[in-house]
Specification:
Layout: H1 3-33, H2 38-48, H3 55-87, H4 92-100, H5 112-126, H6 129-140
Length: 141
């Protein structure tokens, strides 16, 4: 099996993971726009139980949710871009970085239970001596 074939499978896994994360973030934004986001559900459940929440808290909570969504969207897109670079055997450090991101809980968006095995698999492949030398040889060209 060639180095390109060895790297392609985990890179494709990272690409699919990143693309699903981007999609989930976009769905989250649409839900937020129509008042169906997590924070809105929290506000609705509080009002049904007779509790009132200060408007500052509700606006702040929605702002945090949107901000976190934007960060997750950017990181998910970064994982997709890095996975494509990994397939092309460019930048070993970048490939390692985008392999670690899906393993961090709440970092890239969708469940880290999916990202953990993909990230570990990718790091194991990237740390093979022949794969490292292929990245170095490609960087020299």
């Amino acid at each position: 099996m060639t180095v390109e074939q060895r790297v392609k499978a985990p890179a494709l896994g990272l690409l699919i993971f990143g693309a699903l994360s981007v999609l989930m973030q976009l769905v989250g934004f649409v839900m937020q726009m129509f008042g169906k986001g997590f924070m809105q559900q929290f506000i609705d459940s509080a009002s049904q139980s007779g509790q009132t929440l200060p408007s500052v808290f509700t606006g702040f909570g929605v702002g945090i949710q949107v901000g976190q969504g934007l960060i997750n969207l950017a990181l998910s897109a970064f994982v997709c871009w890095g996975a494509v670079q990994m397939m092309k055997l460019r930048s070993h450090g970048l490939a390692q970085s985008v392999s670690v991101l899906p393993m961090i809980p709440c970092c890239v968006g969708i469940c880290c239970v999916i990202g953990l095995p993909i990230g570990i698999w990718s790091l194991v492949v990237l740390n093979r001596p022949d794969v490292r030398s292929a990245f170095q040889a490609n960087a020299a060209n």
